[in-house]
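Handover notes (outgoing to incoming on-call)

Open items:
1. VOC family protein: sequence verified, structure written out, both below. Nothing else pending on this one.
2. Nothing else urgent.
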Amino acid sequence: MTTAKPFLMFQGGTAQAALDLYFATFPDSRMVRVEHYAEGQGGPAGTIKVATFTLCGREFMCSDSPIKHGFTFTPSSSTFVDFDSAAELERVFAVLSEGGQVLMPLGNYGFSKRFGWLNDRFGVSWQLNLAA
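VOC family protein structure tokens:
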């Protein structure tokens, strides 16, 4: 069976810290499998070579790139999360925006009663929405 999963490429060995934040923030989120770089394998020992994990029950993949790139995450590719509760939306927005960049503060933008867009401190872009 052919499958597709979002893939997050971190730089500077920050993948595990990002995953720790996401697992503590979102329900039904956990590590599925992880492979770390060993000494002499091309990346800093102990960083994530490749991982599969779930966020809100959806599978993602990630890695810590040992190669320095002239690019990083961009808001044009983001993860959209619908919330049933305004309180939960506001909690997650506060957690993810800490140390990050708010692109659109929580508000009513016409297409949603309560919506916000941000880049977290790792550069990952999130669109957070109160489901109608």
